[in-house]
Inverse folding.
């Protein structure tokens, strides 16, 4: 009897200690999120100023530049853009972790949204002589989504496809109308992903040795954010790839009727 009592007291003590440690970890995690958010916000203003003045110099407003100077300014602008993307990704991760990422949903023409993203990114694919094609089932129903967040998803996936597809390759962006959802695909003929790295593709800060040579490297957060944004829309995302042959990223967006959302 006495032994059972002592065992119960020990269990209660361990439970109390675990609860206190969990509380401390939650506080530290919140401090970390607050720190990342605050620092990221504070860095945005000086970065915007640096970018503006670099653009002024690149446009030769203060005076003419020689070829070497133009190259240096281009490198500066490229690294400013990369740092800006990293900060934006950190802010997004911070919002997602803290539950502050909000969706502003409305009925959206998914074909028009996708065409807009392709139009914006086409100059990058043209620069590598990559064929950027679209394949849409028409008519496609409007779906209830946050357009800005889905634009971010498409921009990330198509942008990655362009980055990791060699010159003269091909990228196809598809929309497939299914009974309960719309399936969105981005398929490329790029360098592919090793089988052992596939399970880590959507993890944070992963640079899974998918490189097409020199150039801007990713932040390692883009696909993690993409997965979270798709999940927030109650969709699913997955990847299929063969090294040297290409990669297909696909995600689904559930179709919600207007009536189901109380919109009529």
């Amino acid at each position: 009897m006495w032994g059972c009592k002592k065992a119960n007291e020990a269990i209660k003590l361990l439970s109390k200690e675990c609860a206190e440690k969990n509380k401390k970890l939650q506080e530290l995690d919140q401090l970390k999120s607050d720190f990342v958010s605050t620092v990221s916000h504070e860095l945005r203003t000086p970065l915007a100023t640096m970018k503006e003045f670099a653009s002024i110099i690149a446009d030769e407003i203060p005076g003419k530049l020689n070829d070497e100077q133009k190259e240096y300014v281009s490198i500066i602008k490229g690294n400013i853009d990369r740092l800006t993307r990293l900060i934006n990704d950190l802010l997004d991760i911070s919002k997602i972790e803290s539950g502050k990422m909000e969706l502003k949903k409305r009925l959206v023409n998914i074909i028009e949204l996708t065409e807009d993203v392709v139009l914006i990114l086409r100059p990058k694919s043209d620069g590598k002589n990559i064929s950027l094609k679209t394949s849409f089932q028409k008519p496609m129903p409007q779906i209830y989504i946050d357009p800005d967040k889905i634009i971010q998803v498409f921009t990330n996936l198509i942008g990655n496809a362009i980055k990791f597809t060699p010159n003269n390759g091909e990228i196809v962006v598809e929309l497939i109308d299914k009974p309960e959802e719309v399936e969105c695909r981005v398929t490329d003929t790029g360098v592919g992903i090793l089988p052992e790295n596939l399970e880590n593709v959507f993890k944070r800060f992963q640079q899974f040795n998918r490189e097409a040579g020199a150039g801007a490297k990713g932040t390692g957060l883009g696909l993690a954010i993409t997965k979270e944004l798709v999940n927030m829309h109650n969709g699913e995302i997955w990847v299929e790839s063969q090294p040297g042959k290409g990669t297909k990223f696909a995600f689904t967006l559930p179709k919600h009727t207007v009536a189901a959302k109380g919109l009529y």
The chain is about 50% helix and 15% strand. The longest strand covers residues 246-254.
